[in-house]
Amino acid sequence: MALGNAVAQRGPEDKDARRVVNNLEEWADGRYATEKELLLEAIKQRSHFTFDVIHWVKQVTAVLVFVSSAPACNERTHEELRRHALWLISVLSFIPGDKETVEFVENFQLTETFFEAAYDAYHRDCPELAADITLLLVSWLFKGSRYPTGWGILEKAVYGVATLALLAEADGAIPRVKAELTKRVAAGELPDQSATDHAAREIRGRAQTLYREGHWGSAIERTMAHVDRAKLQALLEELADLISPGTRGQAAHHRLF
Description:
The chain is an all-alpha fold. It has helices spanning 2-8, 15-28, 31-44, 49-67, 75-89, 99-106, 110-123, 127-144, 153-167, 173-186, 193-207, 219-224, 229-243.
């Protein structure tokens, strides 16, 4: 990020800054293919190097997004850097969805990683990229919750998706997210109904206790504390009803994650 900060401080006509931006764009072109291969091999070997790859992908994605807004970045390079950023973070969507792999990668906070990448894009005024990464989180919501793992992926991902949708409410994010969830629920992508019902009760329980303050270790929870709580409560309850209409009105006691 130090490189990005240095480039961001230079004017649009600064030749050195423009050279750095162009070199970064060239370096990033096709980088996703190498990182995908490296990530899948690390996962296959159950190597803790997986953590390094996941978080390197997130950090480089953030750098690409940041530099894309630098004054020295022309329109073409601006678009290319953001395209490379999306392709790079999309590497994480190729993680297999079997139970053992999901348990392994969520140990490295994959749900939080998708959320943080989407939030960073939103914060950097990249609404289209933020929307695309939010959909990656939606996909992980269904893939990661297919089997019981003890990580509460379905609940956490719903919290993250709802929060991101509220942040981008003016861009039509809420109906877009609800439509995507509705489509996937109708396609039968959720886990067994008992697990889904349990998650829906947990979501409603959390929705009813948004007023509680805390020192959150989760980026999702920290951001939830800074959006409109009344709107977030309503949206969480709506999403819970969407995935589990049979438990409408039922809420569990609040549980932190």
